[in-house]
Design a protein that fits this description.
It is built from eight helices and six strands. With about 180 residues, the protein is an alpha/beta fold.
Length: about 180
């Protein structure tokens, strides 16, 4: 459920998610892996509906690091979609793309920041960026919907054209306040 005080509308939210989809397709993305996440739901649906993109549901985010690396070795560009809580699950596995200079792109929806209601989300939400950087992953952060496409495009260029390991963090404030569903 969206925060009633949050600026913007459902149409604006759909617009940045659709722009993100178009940006990933423009980067010749062929594979996408993910652990289901409400913040990525529209993007996941768009990519699943695209017959040119192979999608894989993961049981843990660390599998996604291996999937992205394997896709590259197989000649395809890929992206890992995850929530900030999943960053902690990937720490050891992130040494794979960093050590072997395999292009790596992940888009992370943040939790534990803006009006968080789940206490266990706070610790990893606040540590995610630092953890990624300590592992050698370069981080770009998006606070405003109008910056999503340009930031992801820049991250994809750095990953796929410069053999970099890139993470784009989508702020919780931009995505919208999360609440427990009510009946």
């Amino acid at each position: 459920m969206r925060d009633a005080g949050k600026q913007g509308s459902d149409e604006a939210e759909q617009a940045w998610q659709d722009a993100l989809y178009k940006t990933l397709r423009a980067a010749d993305l062929r594979q996408m892996c993910f652990v289901p996440d409400a913040g990525h739901a529209r993007l996941i649906r768009r990519l699943e509906e695209d017959a040119t993109v192979k999608t894989t549901v993961l049981t843990t985010e660390e599998e996604g690091v291996a999937m992205v690396c394997g896709a590259w070795l197989g000649g395809h560009r890929s992206v890992l979609l995850m929530q900030s809580s999943g960053v902690g699950n990937c720490i050891n596995m992130l040494s794979l793309p960093v050590t072997y200079r395999i292009p790596f792109l992940t888009i992370v929806t943040m939790r534990g920041e803006w009006a968080e209601f789940v206490p266990h989300q706070v610790a990893m939400g606040q540590a995610a960026q630092g953890c990624l950087e300590l592992m050698g992953v370069k981080v770009l952060r998006v606070e405003r919907a109008e910056d999503v496409a340009e930031t992801v495009s820049a991250a994809a260029a750095m990953a796929f054209e410069s053999d970099q390991q890139m993470a784009v963090l989508l702020s919780q404030r931009m995505i919208g306040r999360k609440r427990w569903p009510t009946k």
